[in-house]
Please model this.
Amino acid sequence: MSLVADIPTIVNDSPEAKRYNRIRRRLEISDLAIGLAFLVLLLLTGWSAMLRDWAYHGAFQNYTLAVFLYVFMLMLAAKLLGIGLDYYGLRLERRY
Model:
């Protein structure tokens, strides 16, 4: 057995690969920042309590179903906020 075959080789990324990775990192950080800002906004404005009440009434006062509806509404709102970044990420992948 040769030990040389087990040593990983260092590959230098092309300028395009570096640019792509830099843009992807920025997109991921932006998505995280938007999600965090959304959650803080929910807490500071009282919209979280409003969503809780909607979920509770929509679930006909069933607590378990209300929790499910509340989480579903949060996920839907977060996805709608991040749809622009998702689309840009898709376009970025197709470009590279």
